[in-house]
Write a structure and sequence with these properties.
Blueprint: H1 9-24, E1 29-35, H2 42-52, E2 63-69, E3 74-79, H3 81-84, H4 91-104, H5 108-126, E4 142-143
Protein name: TPM domain-containing protein
Pfam families: TPM_phosphatase
Domain TPM: 5-118
Length: 145
């Protein structure tokens, strides 16, 4: 069963629903990637997956990746250049702290959903939804090994 054992069907739905809600009011794109282990620097791994998931190909460069290695207890949020130019310098760090606090309680789905909603609020502020917006990236969670 792998890493998915940490997430009930309701938990996975909570995460994908948070993505959909967050993206409702923005042209920004949010993805979640979860795996068991991260044997390298967490930001290097997140950057690799960001590219592998083609998140750098959004029109406004406003993709955000939430990355979690459950068993190694590593977590990162990585925003593309477009959003990083707009948000406050401490935004990702403060969002990460909120998520990590809940991760430490074992509330994986709730932690990710809360962080996603926070990111969605920033995306809505800086990249409001336009009538011609299309969902450029999947809302589904990607799972590694």
């Amino acid at each position: 069963m792998g890493v998915q054992k940490y997430f009930s069907e309701a938990g996975k739905l909570q995460i994908t629903n948070a993505i959909r809600v967050a993206e409702t009011n923005t042209s920004g794109e949010i993805r979640v990637h979860i795996e068991k282990h991260c044997k390298e620097d967490v930001l290097d791994r997140a950057a690799y997956l960001f590219e592998k998931l083609e998140m750098h190909k959004t029109e406004l460069r406003n993709g955000v990746l939430f990355y979690l290695a459950v068993e190694d207890k590593k977590f990162a949020i990585l925003g593309d250049g477009g959003i990083n130019q707009k948000v406050a310098d401490d935004f990702w760090e403060s969002t990460k702290e909120v998520v990590i606090a809940k991760l430490k309680e074992g509330k994986y789905a709730e932690a990710l959903a809360d962080g996603i909603i926070m990111a969605g609020e920033q995306l809505k502020t800086h990249f409001p939804y336009q009538d011609d917006d299309v969902n450029e990236l999947s809302d589904e969670i990607s799972f590694g090994k």
